[in-house]
From TrEMBL:
One of its GO terms (biological process) is proteolysis. Residues 127-157, 549-573 are annotated as: Disordered. Residues 581-662 form the DUF4384 domain. Residues 41-313 form the Peptidase C14 caspase domain. GO terms for cellular component: cytoplasm. This is Caspase domain-containing protein.
């Protein structure tokens, strides 16, 4: 299977802006740079539209996008709430958007101010009277008052806001410190798997024109800003008018409106805002964002869509490279912020929680109340969650005045449910066999069949390959797709899971039986994902992965405790999450203990198809002793005495390395691995692949060890409800690294 960029996200950028394609790293780098500048005033206009006419297709996550951006701007980047203007649904008409842009941004901004414009909604395309290059169309933002007949008829011009108009509005701003974020796309509207594309539905034979009002509006701005229309065209051809523009998908890709655990959001906006909540402000954004797409795989894997972000800055400017000196004055990294206080009851926004960890933040999680120096002043225990809003109570009172709106919260303990399930969507392509598949899945422990309705969250889909799937995959570069009619597993965005498809004509019941071991492995992977706390763990641990033969980019991934302490990196290793190795490379991992106490380390290798392999420790005579890493010391995997070479293989793709560093031994899990190794005849120094029910058994033992260690290490047992397994940030660092194998 050809490599698929499931870990890169963004939305379609307007062709008229002349954007070049870069990676999400550069987008987020420049986005945060602009936000972090010290300026007299910061202004934002956030637009989100869910409610469109039925014929155009409604969306579900755009209002969440706006809320995510608003909370981030106000509580992490210091925007005055009164300077953040929000337009949603019926407010976001053509006139409403244009008037508010003029009144709130253009008329109020001054030179040196920071301005943010965010749009989440449908995109589309209209004929461009003055096209640039060979493309006769101009991309648009679709306002809420677009008529429904535009989906099937070319007769009536549409009130869309063209990219050309956005260029003019950007030109009219008196500041260069402008960030435009566009979470939309303009082709391929409709549904894909369990996701919705953010492009207005339109029949293939429909070609739309902009309204006369739109063209007249452009004419007025051109006369105000430029000597002539020819001069405007010359400037427009050079690229972005002011500041920087970020979009969430290339021209022929889809920006996804995705269901998460109890809510919908734009996958790109969720990824970006969540990352910026957790990123500390004590180092350059160039380092931080070099591999944002690979490091924040939680959102990407939730959708499985093929999206490559786009970014552009004004030609000849240094807008994308301004120094981050103001970052030292930003507030500390956090997972949540208090929004409302009533007595000892607290409502808080969970903007920094990864989507795949949300189940661990429903009941029993404990947060530290921190001051602006990042020091704990008290504690809150979570009692419930609705979408991204948590509710809880103060259990350790801080000094007077600390529990108030705007106070930041950091994860202390998460509570992973013992009955966490794998949610498998039963796809409509199964037809009459759908009921049989649901019944067969219900008979498997901790496998939860769910309907595919773009409302329910699914981890994977089970269905048949269609001709439409083949056509879509070929556009994305898929060279060896499974055959039409075969049954197997897909991501939520209908990307095929390698090795999961059977022969054509296989019955649904036989397919479920065949896939049972694979589903167990994927369930184990889902549980492991809920453990990943590298961005919040207080342990001082770094993980480095290097190419032994020099065929790749060596780099390190560190826990929050390590980032806060500024621990030195191994010689020759840069601090980045962008790890790429050429096919056939031999690699090794190094785990360093920067603590003043012993830690115990395990290392798991998770293949692109979900297989889980234990790579360390591999001394089955004394696994606990082997896993110990003394203060200031490191462990290298493979060990010199091991019987394997860690080769990335000859197939392009991605895999994951999960390092578990605990302050106490993971005894039960190690004994389980020891038993498996002896039963299968694995010698010391040989990796152990987990099969059948082994992944669930090993991960269950692992969670039991972590729960015991967390409770005995300070997480009061009476505070953690039954049915939840405690994971303390002071006891464990679970650090995930995504590695890409390239041609």
């Amino acid at each position: 299977m050809k490599r698929r960029h499931f870990l890169q996200f963004s939305s379609s950028l307007f062709a008229s802006l002349g954007l070049s394609q870069l990676d999400l790293t550069q987008q987020a780098h420049r986005y945060a740079q602009v936000l972090a500048q010290s300026t007299p005033r910061k202004l934002a206009l956030l637009v989100g539209i869910n409610e469109y006419p039925t014929a155009l297709g409604g969306l579900q996550g755009c209002l969440t996008d706006v809320e995510m951006q608003r909370e981030l701007l106000v509580h992490r980047f210091g925007f005055n709430p009164n300077d953040v203007k929000i337009l949603t649904n019926t407010q976001a008409t053509r006139e409403g958007i244009l008037t508010t842009f003029e009144e709130h941004l253009i008329k109020q901004a001054k030179s040196g101010d920071v301005v943010v414009f965010h749009y989440s909604g449908h995109g589309s395309r209209v004929r461009d009277p003055d096209p640039i290059g060979n493309d006769p169309f101009n991309s648009t933002m679709v306002p809420s008052d677009r008529p429904p007949e535009s989906a099937t008829s070319s007769a009536t011009p549409v009130p869309d806001i063209m990219g050309q108009t956005l260029f003019l509005l950007m030109s009219a701003l008196p500041t260069e410190n402008l960030t435009v974020v566009l979470d939309c796309c303009y082709s391929g509207g409709g549904k894909r798997g369990n996701l919705i594309a953010r492009a207005a539905r339109q029949s293939s034979d429909v070609t739309l024109d902009a309204s006369p009002e739109e063209l007249e509006y452009q004419k007025q701005w051109i006369s105000k800003l430029y000597d002539s229309k020819q001069k405007f065209q010359e400037v427009r051809e050079k690229g972005v008018a002011k500041g920087v523009v970020i979009a969430s998908a290339a021209r022929d890709q889809l920006a996804t409106d995705a269901p998460f655990d109890g809510f919908h959001a734009g996958a790109f906006t969720y990824l970006l805002t969540r990352y910026l909540w957790q990123e500390p402000g004590n180092r350059s954004f160039k380092t931080v964002f070099e591999n944002l797409a690979l490091r924040t795989q939680d959102v990407a894997k939730s959708s499985g869509m093929y999206q490559i972000p786009e970014f552009e800055e004004k030609q000849g400017s240094n807008n994308g490279d301004k120094p981050l000196y103001f970052l030292e004055k930003t507030r500390p990294a956090a997972e949540a912020v208090i929004r409302k206080v009533t007595g000892d009851q607290v409502e808080f926004w969970l903007g920094g929680i990864a989507s795949q960890s949300l189940k661990a933040f429903e009941k029993g999680a404990i947060f530290s109340i921190i001051d602006d120096e990042g020091q704990e002043q008290g504690q809150i225990q979570q009692e419930s969650r609705v979408e991204l809003v948590g509710y809880g109570k103060v259990i350790k009172s801080p000094q007077s005045g600390m529990v108030k709106e705007g106070t930041l919260l950091r994860e202390q303990v998460r509570g992973i449910p013992t009955n966490l399930t794998l949610r498998v969507g039963v796809d409509e392509t199964l037809g009459a066999e759908k009921a049989k598949v649901q019944a067969a899945l219900q008979g498997q422990k901790r496998i939860e069949p769910v309907s595919v309705e773009q409302r329910n969250t699914v981890d994977y889909l089970l269905g048949k390959v269609t001709q439409e799937d083949i056509q879509s995959w070929r556009k994305q570069g898929e060279s060896n797709p499974p055959p039409v009619g075969s049954l197997g597993l897909f991501t939520a965005g209908k990307a095929p899971i390698s090795g999961s498809f059977g022969r054509v004509g296989e019955t649904a019941e036989n397919a479920v039986t065949r896939l049972r071991p694979r589903l167990k492995v994927l369930l184990a992977g889902r549980i492991l994902k809920s453990l990943d706390n590298g961005d919040s763990s207080q342990l001082n641990v770094t993980t480095s992965i290097q190419a032994v033969d020099g065929k790749g980019t060596s780099g390190t991934v560190s826990s929050r405790g390590s980032r806060n302490s500024q621990s030195p990196l191994p010689p020759g290793v840069i601090n980045t999450q962008k790890l790429q190795f050429k096919r056939g490379s031999n690699i090794q991992a190094q785990v360093k203990n920067n603590e003043s106490r012993n830690i115990f380390v395990s290392l798991l290798f998770i293949t692109g198809s979900g297989e889980i392999i234990n790579l360390f420790p591999l001394d089955w005579d004394a696994p606990e002793e082997k896993s110990l890493v003394a203060p200031g010391q490191s462990k290298i995997v493979p060990q010199p005495e091991d019987n394997f070479v860690w080769n990335v293989g000859d197939t392009a793709g991605t895999f994951e390395v999960l390092v578990l560093a605990s302050v106490a031994p993971l005894r039960t899990a190690l004994k389980g691995l020891q038993s498996i190794a002896r039963r299968t005849g694995s010698r010391n120094g040989n990796p152990v692949a987990l099969q059948e029910d082994e992944p669930i058994d090993v991960i269950g033992n692992l969670l039991g060890d972590i729960d015991n260690n967390s409770r005995s290490g300070g997480a009061a047992p009476q505070l953690i409800p039954k049915g939840n397994q405690a994971v303390s940030t002071n006891q464990l660092a679970a650090i995930s690294t995504i590695v890409e194998v390239v041609e």
